[in-house]
Structures are given as structure tokens and as C-alpha cells.
Amino acid sequence: MELTCETSEPSDTVVAPPAPQRSFAYFADLNPADNTKFIEARVYRKWIAVKMPSFIPTEFSCILLDKRGSAIQANTDLTEKDRFDHELQLNYDTFPHHYFNFAAYNELGSRLEKKNPILTDYIGYVHNVEKVKEYGSATGNKIKLRNIAIRNLNNNVVLFTLWNEKASAFEEEEYRKMRQPVILAVSSCYLKTYGGQIQLSATSTTSYYFNPPIDETAELLAAYNEANTQPLQIEVHTERSSEWEQKRNRNRVPLVTLLQIDPNTQQRVLFTQEVLILQLDTGYDWYYRKCDGCGGKLDYGFVHGHCHPYGNESKPQNSYSFRMTITDGTANATITCFSPQMDGLIKDVNALLEEVDNKDPAVLPPQILALQNTRHVFQFKFAKPSGKGTPTLVLQKVMDHPVPMLPTTAAEPSSPPAPLLPPGTSQQITPPPTTPSTTQETPANTSATPTQLTTSAVRKQLFIEAAEKEIDPQSKKQKTE
């Protein structure tokens, strides 16, 4: 039997249709379900992502930029790092040089509250550049950081923090040579809070640019030039110093200049000035009761329940809180004084309360009124502004005289040496002298030597009592039997 087939019938062989040609697309036209597109992009930035806080590398990442200025992040496995790192270059000039998605100042708070994982870009004027600060020691971890204050058109200031290598690599000298104002754009920052203020914290992907050629830079420069007057610039120092004269004379800015500055821009700066106290504010309470937990003001007879749960005893404290008007000859300013920053100007508030008969906080005692028409050197800072109006100050320290150093007693023994006993004399332990009652008259300038001897005698007596308790007469009887 022979198998035959009709040649006119169609064959069962399936011919695959020709592959569709890929078409060019921008990032905005891409669809995850459509693989018929291809892109042309510039490698804007590339880095190795790490896992925090162990710094373990996880993947190779880069940001791609198309000709329309749109950006997208691409990730690949670390095994492909060498190939892509070699093939992906950063020198394609026909594409935009920068891509940012800037957040406004009033958007930072909502991002922080929601713990938004999206990294933040920000732009503004360079307001202040601090020196590198180091923390830690060789026994633990060492950290370097540098804070850069960025100011927007509304004079809102945000701190941008660089860490470790990036803090040291900041080209401070190059910045000093730039023409003012300098625009700074930062990218890919985490939002954090420190001391109640929002900060931009640099990450491994963070980059910063001086005067980038973008529209926001042109807008900031135009607003600066439109003012037709150069904004008031002051040179401040935020580094700590151990030299008294250096601390006493640094950041001496006339009051007339300080009152023209937006206090929001100088919340972290301490100023000093020699001033004359003109008058005390009699319409302001001169002291108040404060909570020992949070330091807030207490109403008479009440405690803070959130600071002292049921069963915990509250120990409120007294604090100065009076206001006064000061002048340095250029302008008058209002300054508020609290405890313990008043040390060196007036006695302790509790000691003053014991002296005055009228303890009404609304009535200023003569001891405080006597401060009028006296000269002092004050260290102060701006108070947090509560609204529009003239800025007010808060006293930080009275710097009329250096703080006296405590006498060194390292070379002296902690207690006087015991007298040598003659040979053959047995040492006897006497009980400590009784403490005089409150009705007895005790000299105020009694030396500390009898007190130390008394303490030593008490210690010996306690050891004897402990030894007598350990020796049981019944056990001694058993040993003799």
C-alpha cells in the first residue's frame, strides 16, 4: 500500500510571523507590558547601593535621563557591575545635564511625618557653611559632618548635612571665591529632625551642584537682583572654643544689625555684646514654677500628669523669667532671662525668694530693679519667632568675668594621715560624735578635717557591727565542744 498526498492541500508547517521592529520612545511613553520600545538615554549618575547600617553592597544602580529631561532609575545585579560600569559613561552632551524634582520648604514636614521613602531634592541660596566637626573616638566610631545652611526666597533655612568623606571633600575654598549669592542644589537626601528642626541628610547617592544651569537657579538670581539691594550678610562662627576671651568677643554684631535679620536664619548662632540695661518689664512675671520633667510652666497647685504618672512625686522648681530692655548704643532690644543662665548677674532665685516679703511674681523686687543702668557682657541667641514683629533675644550666659576654676586637690590626700601610735599602745575605736541639734550654735567656717575623721570613724564602727553579727555565739559553743 502506498501513501499519497495531495500537493494542493496546505502544509501543516507553521511559519512564524516576522518580528515587529522596535520603535523609539521616551520614558513617559514606556509601558511595563510593552517590550516593543527602545530608549536613548544619558547616564546621569551611577552608584553601588548598600544596606544600612552594615554597608553591605546590594546592587548596581544608575539614573538615566532622556532628551525631554525625564529620569528613571535602573538597577542590576552586582555581577553585572563591571560590564555596565564600563559601558555606561557620563559624557553624552546632547542630553540635559541635570534632573531634579525639588521639594518646597512647606512640603518637607509632610514628607517627614509620612516617613516618605522617596529621597528629596532641594535648592536655595547658600546661607552659611560650617567647618567640619568630628565626633567619637578610636575606641568606638568616628564621625565627621559638615552643616550647610540653605535659604529659600521666604528666608526659611534648612540644614544640609554632609557625612565623613563627603564632608571633608567639600571644596570650601572654591566656594569662598564664588560671587555672591551662590545657589546650591542638592539631590537624593533623607529627611531627618535634630533639635526640633528639619534637616537634609546626605546619602550615598547624594550630589550637590553650585549654580546649576536650570530654571530654578535663574529664578533665585532674578529675585536677588530684583531686590536692588544686597541682603544683609554677617559672618558668624559656630565652632566651640575653650578660650574665655575668644568666647567673650566672638560674633559681636551690633543690635541694629541683628534686628534687621530674619531670626529664622540664625537660630543656632550665639552672639555676644556689651550692653546697658535700660529698664525692666514690669508687666511680665519675674519668676515661675517649672515642671522638673519637661521644664514647662506649671499653674499654681497643678502638676503635669504626662510627666508624673500616678504615684510619682512631682518636685517643681523655681526659675527666673523676667524681661528687660538693653542697648549697645546702636539700638534697643528686648531680652528674656531664665535660670540658670542668670548666674553671675543676680543671686539664685530660691535665695531671692527667701529674702523678699512679697512673693507675687507680678511684683518685681528691688534686687531685680537695681539691675537698671548697669553694664554687662551678655551671650544670647534669637528667640523662636512667634509671629511678625521685632525679634527678641534670650540670655544664654553672663560673661562679665571668667568662671573661676575649682582648686585642684589631686596632690593632697583625700583624708589626713592617721597619727602614729607609740609602741605598745593598742588602737581603740571610739564612737563618732553626736551631730549637734539645730538649736546648737555651730561656726559657719568649720574646717572639713573633723568631718572627714568622723566619716572614717563611722565606717570603722559599721565594720565592727557587721563582724559581730557574723559571729554567732551558738556556733562558737559548738566549736569548743
Automatic annotation (TrEMBL):
The protein's matches in SUPFAM superfamilies, at most eight in alphabetical order, are given as:
Nucleic acid-binding proteins
Q: Where is the composition biased (Polar residues)?
A: 444-458
What InterPro entries does its record include? NA-bd_OB-fold, REPA_OB_2
Q: Which Pfam families match?
A: REPA_OB_2
**Molecular functions (GO terms):** DNA binding
Alphabetical list of Gene3D superfamilies matching this protein: Nucleic acid-binding proteins
The Basic and acidic residues compositionally biased stretches are: 466-481
Q: Report keywords, A-Z.
A: DNA-binding
Q: Where is the Replication protein A OB domain?
A: 117-209
- Give the region (Disordered) as residue ranges: 404-481
Taxonomically, which superkingdom? Eukaryota
Q: Which segments of the protein form a coiled coil according to its record?
A: none
| UniProt-recorded name of the protein | Nucleic acid-binding, OB-fold protein
